[in-house]
Amino acid sequence: MTADEQALVDAEAAFNRAMISNDPAKIRECISADWVLVTPERGPIPGAAVLDAIAGGTLVHDTMTKQSRVVRVFGTTGFVTGRGQNTGWFRGQPIGADEWITDIYRRADGRWLCELTHLTPAVTPDDKA
């Protein structure tokens, strides 16, 4: 793994820690002002809407783990794809997910900032029955 790729893996770990902190300020340190979350349920969601949901307690993350599988850097752009699981609460109801996650980053001022997160449910062949 190159130094740039390791820095990207470290940025991804910091992003995960920020998300389970449920602190919008910490999350903002890891994302760009234009960050977008793409979900299978709602499609693209502006980052501001996600942060507002977290700030208001509508969305809470208790756990978030990710196994990075593919890490690539192309100049000032990089991406991390891996399998992630998380638990928490949405509108007072417990939630949990097992997903394939791709985070696309841009290097700015020597730091990696996430520009886009794309989520896809992790479905095994047995789940398709």
UniProtKB/TrEMBL annotation:
Domain of life: Bacteria
Domain spans labelled DUF4440: 9-113
InterPro entries listed in its UniProt record: DUF4440, NTF2-like_dom_sf
One Pfam family per UniProt: DUF4440
Name of the protein this chain belongs to: DUF4440 domain-containing protein
